[in-house]
Amino acid sequence: MKVKVCGITSIEQLYDLQEIGVDYAGFIFYEKSPRYVGTHLMTGDQVKKAGLSIQKIGVFVNADIEQILKMVDEWGLDMVQLHGEESPVFCENISNHVKTVKAFRVNEQELISYKIAPYQNAVDYFLFDAMGEQYGGTGNQFNWDIIAAANISKPFFLSGGIGPSDISSIHSYAANDMNCFAVDVNSKFELQPGKKDMNLVKSFYGSLIKAMIR
């Protein structure tokens, strides 16, 4: 099970994540987010010069392709996460340049299998998050049984209000769904928006890894 910590806003915390062993760091390029990297001191130049092996994922919401590819270059992004209403064609255009994750906000009134079908061949990964008024970072969970019933055939990130107390639930779920290969955590590990409690992240990461190898 891989771990992504999203909403990173400082170079120091990026170093911390690598030292802990976290697989992915998420940088939010959505200006309305309190975790928007543009309002903090970390720069793309710092990130590129750091030369860290942790995978860097840029999170975008309904951005244009030029902006996305510019940030991929300036920040040395390894992956792009599209968290808005991007079309399958748009997603495929991005995935021709960089590995791409399409995020879906899960609504219990919708059939998720129909929602994701047009994107099956357009992206590399899916991500499932809780429905809310904002795009991610709500701290809310959704019923994971919804995606279990959909029989997702593509590797996906499980997101949405995951916290330190969810290790056993993650283990149980992932044991029955081999395509759930990563969890995405954010607000439940924060001291304030954009500032992670690294002791909490370290404890969660270590406990999750131990649970998954039992």
SSE topology sketch:
Blueprint: E1 2-6, H1 11-20, E2 24-28, H2 44-50, E3 55-60, H3 65-75, E4 79-82, H4 88-95, E5 99-106, H5 112-116, E6 125-130, H6 145-150, E7 156-158, H7 167-175, E8 180-185, E9 190-192, E10 195-196, H8 198-212
Parallel strand pairs: 1-2, 1-8, 2-3, 3-4, 4-5, 5-6, 6-7, 7-8
Antiparallel strand pairs: 9-10
Helix pairs in contact: 1-8, 7-8
Give a verbal description of the structure.
With 214 residues, the protein is α/β, with parallel strands linked by helices. The chain has 8 helices and 10 strands. The chain has a single domain (2-212), classed as Aldolase class I (TIM Barrel, Alpha-Beta Barrel). Helix content is 33%, strand content 22%. Helix 1 (11-20) runs parallel beside helix 8 (198-212) and helix 7 (167-175) runs parallel beside helix 8 (198-212). The radius of gyration is 16 Å and the shape is globular. The protein starts with a strand and ends with a helix.
CATH topology: TIM Barrel
Number of strands: 10
CATH homologous superfamily caption? Aldolase class I
Corresponding CATH architecture: Alpha-Beta Barrel
What is the molecular shape?
globular
- What's the number of domains? 1
The count of helical stretches stands at: 8
* Rg over alpha carbons: 16 Å
Task: Tell me, rounded to a whole number, the average pLDDT.
Answer: 92
Question: Gist?
Answer:
This protein has 214 residues and is an alpha/beta fold. The protein is 33% helix and 22% strand.
